[in-house]
Every structure is written in C-alpha cells, then in structure tokens.
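#onboarding

Welcome to the new folks! Below is a worked example of what a typical request in this channel looks like: someone posts a single protein sequence, and someone else replies with the predicted structure as tokens. Don't worry about understanding the tokens yet, we'll cover that in week two.

Example request:
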Amino acid sequence: MSIAILLFSLFYQFLGKDETTTAVDTYTFCEVLGAEEANKQLRRHWDTWVTEEIIQELAEVAHVTSLRLPVGDWSFNSYGPFAGCTDGSLDYIDKLLGWADKYNLSVLLDVHTMKGSQNGFDNSGQARRVEWTSKFSKWPEGDTSTFLHWPIREANWMGTFDRASMTYPAVDMDNINHALTVVSNLVERFKDSPAVLGLEPINEPWEFTVRNQYIF
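Example response:
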C-alpha cells in the first residue's frame, strides 16, 4: 500500500458529505469528528504511519542518513479543536527520535503548521477561506457540494489579511507570541536529543508575509 493511500485514507470517510460534515485539513478533522473520535483515529494512524522497521530499512537498505520531520504547532502549544484531538503526538515524535538515534539518522524538526495558517493551505493545519459550492462539480450542478479554495486562500498567521491591498493592516501579537512559544517549547524539549540535526521554525510561509512591516 502506498504512503499516499495511507495518508488520504483518513479523509475517505468524508467523501460525498457537505460543508458541516466534511474535513479538509487537521483543524476540521478535529472539529467534525470531535476530540475523542479524532484522537482515536489519529493514534491508529500514527501507530502504522512510521514504525521502527521503516526507520531501520531507510538507514540500512536505502542508506538514508537524515530525515525531515514535519510537526504540528499544536503539539507544543495546543489550542482550539486540536486540544484533546492531537493528544499523544509528542510521544510519537519521541519514538521517532529514539529510532533515528538507534540507527544513526539525524532529524530536522520542521514546524509545519501555525495558528491562523502561514500560507492558507491545508498542509498548514488549516485551509483558510474555503467557499462551498456546487458550481465546479462534475455532476449536475446542485446535486453535490465541493469547495473553492486555491484562488481565494489567505493566511492569518501574522494578522487579518486584506485581499484588496494584499497586506496585513494590523499585526496579531497573540498569533506571533503563540509561534514563539511553540518554538521555545520545542527547543526546550529536544535540546539534548542526539538525533536532532536542527530546527525549521516555520514551513513555507506565503509570499505576502515578507511584505508586512511586522517581521520578527
């Protein structure tokens, strides 16, 4: 079974559902299923997604020497629907770092998500600005629901984005302080881990972030 199938199988259960019962990212996955059920499914996924056997094979058969591990900001400073939903995620990070050390692999820790979304995509944890519609359905219009996202996405990590000016008129210090807390907590937890190669403090912030005057 391919890695892609393993990943997307978490979301197969939402096919054919509407905007109130469909998950398109981790945020809505936790919202729609609720913390208890979502956490149960995530733990089942984590148990099989990466195992010690896979790490051993990467090191000894594929001769891989370094890994990049995407981690969620919610693991280090939980908030919103992630509370309870993503419980236990740190335990799996600890496991992977232990296996990496055992098989002489280094690991780059990559903070892949951030509160408010740093790029508007679902891979930031929350796809920002999603409009539900039947206009683009392959079936007769009105019979099924789909959503429009890519052309209208926005990222509110730095503040509320103004699409008219393509800037952030005001900074969101709560989100920025959240980001700083995430990085601080991550560093404190893994500073002595022999497998850690380094830290990527934020993954793929979108191009409009650099236009904002509030850069830290």
